[in-house]
Amino acid sequence: MGTWRPRTRAALALVLGAALLTIYAVDPSQHALTPPCPYRTLLGLACPGCGLTRATHALLHGDVSRAFAFNPWAFVAAPALAVFIALPHLTGPPRTSQLRTRISWVMLLVTLAFWVWRNTATYPFVPV
Length: 128
Hints:
Elements (H helix, E strand, L loop, with lengths): L5 H20 L12 H6 L8 H9 L3 H7 L3 H17 L2 H25 L11
Helix pairs in contact: 1-3, 3-4, 5-6
């Protein structure tokens, strides 16, 4: 975000804040806030993102265990994304590039493994 203009940052913060306020106020388990997942609609299987809105709602209400049950992948993806974004502020360009590449590959593998696992009978969390 280093090269983003102040207005762009403010607009992004406003949109993000409005989205979080909406997710906090409206229980996505009771009301549809997002369109249905196309992957789930077409194939009947859950994608890695299925359950993220419900997990965010639970997390905003302080229910970490319920949020984890809806989508445990988010608890890996969110910190990885935070590190990915923070890297330019923590290290130089060559090191940032190397670390971002590694994070990207690790997250790709973690995401694919989670995607497969969550669609097996051994997946122990709530249905999506």
